[in-house]
Design goal:
By secondary structure, the protein is an all-alpha fold. The protein has seven helices and no strands.
């Protein structure tokens, strides 16, 4: 009987898992879409053309957002709570991009010119910022 209770308790969590996984995936897609629209360079077009710098920068930003997003999912009391914290994480990622542009003039132009160093700097800054962002989130 104890085995059935454990199985039932485990299966009871599946709807919550699905809800938060879908919400997290949707928030990641929203972040990616906004990032593509708000940055001066055209990531998807650049990536389709084989621009490694653009792929590194965009990939780093997706990971940099996914890290605090995972923290948001872990601590969210509800889907609205998740969305609020995810929007904060999203804002921080855009601030990181803006600040990095102060230190690397013509960042977008350099990425368009396939400057891998610029792509690595952008991706690394996004991941580093995401880690700090996630660690700063408290209940």
């Amino acid at each position: 009987m104890g085995g059935q209770g454990f199985l039932h308790a485990s299966l009871a969590g599946i709807p919550w898992f699905l809800l938060y996984a879908v919400a997290g995936g949707a928030l990641l897609v929203i972040f990616g879409a906004l990032y593509i629209r708000l940055t001066p360079h055209h990531e998807l077009e650049e990536i389709r053309e084989g621009n490694v710098a653009a792929a590194i920068g965009f990939g780093g930003n997706l990971i940099g957002f996914a890290i605090p997003l995972s923290r948001c999912i872990q601590q969210a009391a509800s889907i609205p709570d998740l969305v609020i914290w995810a929007m904060l994480a999203l804002a921080v990622q855009f601030i990181i991009f803006l600040v990095l542009r102060l230190f690397i003039p013509d960042l977008s132009g350099r990425i368009e010119r396939r400057d891998i160093a610029a792509g690595i700097a952008l991706g690394a800054a996004a991941v580093a910022g995401g880690l700090i962002n996630a660690a700063s989130m408290t209940l």
